[in-house]
Amino acid sequence: MKARTIGTAAAAAVAALAARDLLQKRHALLRNFPVAGHARYLLERIGPELRQYIVTSNEEERPFSRDQRSWIYASAKEENNYFGFGTEVDVAHVQGHAYLKQRTFAGPLPDAHDPAAPLPSAKVLGGPRGRAAAFRPASVVNVSAMSFGSLSGAAITALNEGAAQAGALHNTGEGGLSPYHRKGGGDLVLQLGTSYFGCRNADGGFDLAKLKEVVASAPVRAIEIKLSQGAKPGLGGMLPGAKVTPEIAEIRGIPVGEDCASPSRHSAFGDTDSMLDFVELLAGETGLPVGVKSAVGELGFWQELASMMARGDRGVDFVTVDGGEGGTGAAPRIFADSVSLPFRMGFSRVYGTFAELGLTDRLTFIGSGKLGLPENAAVAFALGADMVNVAREAMLSIGCIQAQKCHTDRCPTGIATQNPWLARGIDPASKATRAAVYLRTLRRELTKVSSALGVAHPSLITPDDIEVLNGDYEARTLASVYGYKDGWGRLGPELAEEITRLLTA
């Protein structure tokens, strides 16, 4: 009797669904194929998951392949991150693949297998311009800009504590310095976006007094002015009023429950000249190194910046170049796919602009955009990067599964969401350990590959040490591919000698 009742109810439900499908006018598929047509929408909805785990090969998926994710997961968990039985990459035919050329003999090298071995920057951040709080970053691998609001409080806490354990810097992102950035004790890079969140006055303009208060209240080691980012270069943003909770409103300095539009460009300066005045103002008032972050589009800005810095009276302490493949920020498809140059091309053009004027030893170059993988990071260092920032890779290390739902507030792992029920899935303490282990592992991998190339530090890898496959059977050095002149991509002799001595003493 019970089974018959259940069967009758199920049949009635199917009949009701069929009737609804036949009468609705929104979906032609369902009018033509009532009930059965829903299977198509179900498969479409779970298509990414099917492709992720069943259909695609280990090297096929984007933005991070299964092999790349597996390496990050294994590294973060201190599991075996080696791969057996040879590479799955079609090494003889994949165009654009980079190959590092090991050396037979080498000079003094550090212990490449010590998990606790330091790997500091080869340059003192702010040193060339004599900033009062100049310092040598303890790690060449640091956590990139991701705001509280785009990431949950638990995720920010885990990343900050992980950065502290690994001796790395943690960039706050443009959403302001939140309590979660303070919990783990990690040193911070305070990012200033176009809305000056946390450092703004009532009309949205920059407030120097509030900036100084924020800097004094937390372990801020540097200030980064965000001009643009790889995910959505040249585009402002809108934070809907429904998402402006009392907590976010207090952190960002905006009214509760009201829409907040971020402009596409800064109001505190309007050209390169006034930007440098702003940089010097911040550095003079705080003593901190000050730099800019930008994706790369037209080169006029960079040429003007380098030309003005060549005079020696004003300048940025660091430049963070973000690749157009960057992706932690939600963006319109055209911006994600087609605005700004990919990292290697964009970075090489910016670096070359400063190299032409002999300025490369006078500022620190930071790269971001899928550089949390050893091979990509090695190429960045060969092109002239002094440090790399990791964002999505850091998210993967604390449990991200590349569900690509960051823009929906329904991140299943609780990382890119403000949903309390989803965010509770993150245990900040254990995830912090994983983030720290990942950061240390990436540094160790960079030390290993540097040693294989016969140098003590990744900043000593040159653009002639790496070749890029061009077609089936031709390869060109990075220097040739990106038009580098003799000496480009290399540290000056004094810097090279100093970092080698630090690591091999």
Automatic annotation (TrEMBL):
Top-level taxon of the source organism: Bacteria
InterPro entries registered for this protein in UniProt: Aldolase_TIM (IPR013785), GltB (IPR024188), Glu_synthdom (IPR002932)
GO biological process, one term: glutamate biosynthetic process
Domain Glutamate synthase: 139-455
Residues passing through the membrane, by range: none
One annotated GO molecular function: glutamate synthase activity
Family classification: Belongs to the glutamate synthase family.
Protein name (Swiss-Prot/TrEMBL): Putative glutamate synthase
Species of origin: Kitasatospora setae (strain ATCC 33774 / DSM 43861 / JCM 3304 / KCC A-0304 / NBRC 14216 / KM-6054) (Streptomyces setae)
